[in-house]
Design a protein that fits this description.
- The structure is a homodimer of 199-residue chains.
- The longest helix of chain A is centred in the middle third of the chain and has 21 residues.
- Chain A is mainly α and 199 residues long.
- Chain A has two domains: 51 residues, Orthogonal Bundle (Arc Repressor Mutant, subunit A), CATH 1.10.10.60; 130 residues, Tetracycline Repressor, domain 2, CATH 1.10.357.
- Chain A is elongated.
- Chain A is built from nine helices and no strands.
Chain lengths: 199, 199
């Protein structure tokens, strides 16, 4: 192995440096699970010392949690309903954003979910908060003004299905557009079935 | 802390000892995630030395994988369709077994799923194999003789929903019997929607 020349050290403002370090983490996540990501590698990519990195993130865990939070914010920026429109169209906006987000970065997403499920309580809290936000958005888009715990449970289940199918779907099985249609239609049925007394 | 007296050492046949050690693991899983389970604690519970335990399971990982496999076998023993009956009744057998299994040991089940997702490839393989077996059983029970990849994707998604709802449901939100009804009905709709051209 020949040593690659270290990137030129660039002086960045603290906020820019923080953002740079998190972006490196998000990029490395596409190639390996978060647990296998090394702090030394992140510092080297940024062209800074390990010591300087730890001034931004006092522990490895702080760094990982920041990366997972950033990934969650990205997902939530994509999985948004349009302000106006019929419920089905507003739900479609969320599903399309969610499914497309997962499909564009499958390895990354699975690595994140695996990291989240790996047992770190802080990471699990980030996941839980994102899941709650998504649930609220879906209920609002679907036009459920006063959701019951059963509505919430139904949407949580349907989000798990959406995530599983977005990860598992490949183009030769179903196109993203068709998958989105299928999931939007399924939510309508889930909400009818789970929310009414008609079972 | 006062030392509790060690249990009397009992001589067991190798297969019995193996089963005993795995059963201890399954029981400890109800109180903590698998990663926090200590080999010393397992050996102490069995009244044997750490060294003897390692003769049955050469590494901590071997032991964990064996515990996860045993938990998977238990789940599959419960989540079974009756041999005879209409598709909806056969599917109900699987769902009822799955949901009841998860609900009786929620902490344990979540700990296992978290362990599985935690990134150990062998544990992930065990999960994947179980998920495939469940998918096959559901397709067979639902009367889909020649499943397409889209059928499989649909059932995988629905299983993720079933798992999420079984974990999330509490008695004040929905009874187990009602949840099973809801999920059985939902599978019918999912299969119709996902398997036909009618979207």
């Amino acid at each position: 192995m020949t040593a690659t020349p270290a990137p030129a050290r660039v002086r960045l403002k603290p906020e820019e440096r923080r953002t740079q370090l998190i972006n490196i983490g998000l990029r490395l996540l596409t190639t390996r699970p978060i647990h296998e990501m090394s702090i030394d590698e992140v510092a080297a990519e940024a062209g800074i010392s390990r010591g300087l990195l730890f001034r931004y993130f006092p522990t490895k865990r702080d760094y990982y949690v920041a990366v997972v939070e950033a990934a969650g914010r990205r997902l939530l920026r994509h999985a948004k309903a349009p302000e106006q429109g019929a419920p089905a169209e507003r739900v479609r906006g969320i599903v399309d954003g969610f499914v497309s987000f997962v499909q564009r970065r499958k390895g990354n997403y699975v690595a994140l979910v695996r990291a989240g499920a790996g047992g770190d309580d802080l990471v699990l809290e980030v996941f839980e908060a994102n899941r709650r936000t998504l649930t609220d958005r879906v209920l609002d888009a679907a036009g459920v003004p006063d959701p019951t715990p059963l509505h919430r449970l139904a949407v949580r289940g349907w989000l798990a299905m959406t995530e599983e199918m977005a990860i598992g779907a490949t183009d030769d099985v179903v196109t993203t557009a068709d998958l989105v249609d299928l999931l939007v239609g399924n939510l309508e049925q889930v909400m009818e079935r789970f929310a009414s007394g008609d079972r």
